[in-house]
Structure formats: structure tokens, C-alpha cells
Fold this sequence. Notes:
Helix content is 38%, strand content 25%.
Amino acid sequence: MKIDCAGKNEKANVVALYGEFYVFFAFLFKFVAWGKVEEYRYFFSRLIMFLISIVVCIINSSLAFSNQNINIPMNFSNWIYQAGDLECNLMSADFPYGKFYFRSDENNNITFVVSLNQNGWQWDNAMLKIKNAPWEKASDIKSVSSVWLPNSGAEFIFERNISHVLTSINQGKWMMLSLRGSNSSADQTITIPTVNIQEALQSFLSCRDRLLLSNQSTVQREQLPKMPFLDTRDREVVIYFAFGQRTLSNEQKMRLRALYRYIVEDSRVNTVLVDGYTDNVGPSVANLTISRQRAELIAKELNRLGLAEEKVEVRAHGLRYPVASNDTAAGQAKNRRVTLRLVRDNEQVVPADHAFSNVEKGKIQQ
Length: 366
């Protein structure tokens, strides 16, 4: 009768042991009662085999449920690099104890995934460590990441400090996996060699950097229209001026710096239209001059920040094209403005005399 020493079928083991003991005592009774030794030679052979199986089970059980220090042989250390459209993978190849792999996505989230071939273990937490290679003189072991295992299983993910782990591996360090349970007899450590990893590691790191740069460009393009002071439909910024104001405030300069960064990132912008306007206070000629001065003030600040002069077109309109009624102070404040419109390479610049025809036709806030 075969006994499962691995402990995977405890009920079957109990039944098997009970059957063996029953046969043992039955034959022993007959042996004592009748004294027939030769007839029970087969029984003694079975008894010896039974005792041997018990000893083997005891030894295996003590090994299975006591602290284990597993050192994966170096000749098993083989690492493979694989890349997808949105992720990079650095995987161990066919370790007998399970699979280990690093993964990096387009958001630069780097994880270390552990998938063990052992089931039924009641581990509470796992700790990832780095250590010196065995041929190093000093045995330096440092914990770098940990994960709690509320639902004990054979697969779990480390998410913290994995970039540091990769840097350490690049410097020749090995990894160690420490598994702990509520019962100390379930504790286990697995040493993971990193020999033969350098070529795959360099490919993985290059893939990670490439994904990160690509994602940064995508995020920047997607976030450009979300600037709070930029009209997303017309890509227009409006800067208001106080009555008699002839210099830029710090807040206005901050907005222009943000706009300049926007323009630098959006390579499609090839022209910035700067249009100056005033309220109706004072002579129209004076208002035309003031509107030009304010528009040129904006243009010079953009040039100072680094925007080429040929990309900036200044236009002055004076008191024409009000967006609000000049009969109130609030309306006048809205009309004292400079607008900056970003023109992309696939757009045409509309002449100033035609650009505001809709405003002249009565689309003015009262």
C-alpha cells in the first residue's frame, strides 16, 4: 500500500496507516497463538516495508514543514527579455521552483512577480532582499520590498523599490525571497541567482526608458488643451489690464511662462497672434496706441522667454470689437484685454478686419 508522504491527502494516509496496523496485529496474534514462523515470513517482509515507509514519511515531513533554505543552482539561471506595445518583461526561464519576472508598463510602474509551483502553503508575508553573490567575501543582505499575503497563494507581486532591485542586479547582486507564515515551521527562503542576466537586463532597461519617453510625450500632448486659462476650442488666452496699466504683473508673467512651455511642447504651433484692445475711455487714436503698446508688451515677454520673433504677430484694434458693454465699469474691464491665439500649421491666419465680424454684428455682452 502506497502512503502519500507529501501530506496532500491526509485522509487517505490515515486510512492506509489504519489498514497496515490492522493487518499487523492480526498476523501478530496468529503468530503468538500458533507459533508458525515460516508461514508468516511474508508478513515480516511487509512489516519491515511498513516500518521503512513510516521512517521515510517522518523524515520527509520534517523537511517539508521545517525552515527551508532553497538555493537555486546557477546553471538554472537563464533570463529572457520580451517586449510588447505597452510593457516590457524580464523573465526567468523554467526555474524548478516557479517563475520570477520583472514587468514595466508605459507609466513606469515596475513590478516583480513571483509565481511559485508550491500550493497549500499558509504564508502571511513575503520579503524581497538583495544579497552579494556567493563568491563575494562579505555576506551583505538587505531587505528592499515586502508584501502582505492576506489571501495566501503561490503568486504575489512586489511593487516598491523594484528600480533599486534592478540597479543592484546590474551591479552583480543576487535576490533572496523570504516567506513567513503564522507558524514558523512554514518559513522558507529562496535564493535566486542572477547570472546570465546582463544582456536581457540591458534590453529590458532600454525598453523601459523608451516606453517612459513615449508616454511622457503622449501625456504632454493630451494635457496641452487642459490648461485652465486656455480656451480649448480656439486655443486662446486672454490677459486683462487694469485702467492705465502699462506694465505686466507677476501673475501675468507666470501665465505667459506657462503658455510658452505649452508652445514649446506643441510643435504644431507656428504662429502666435497677439491682439490688443481697450475700452472706449479717451480718444480712439490714443486707445489704438495703448492697445498696441500692451500687445507689444506681451510679445516682448514671449520673446524674452525664448519664442522667436517671427512666430509672433502683433495686431492693435483700440476700442473696436468690444466683448462687453462699455456702459459699466465691469464691461470696460473685460474690454481692456490682450488675446493670444495659437495658430497651428494646418490653419490659416484670418486678417484682423475679418476675424471679428461676428462681434461687430452685435455679439457683445451687455
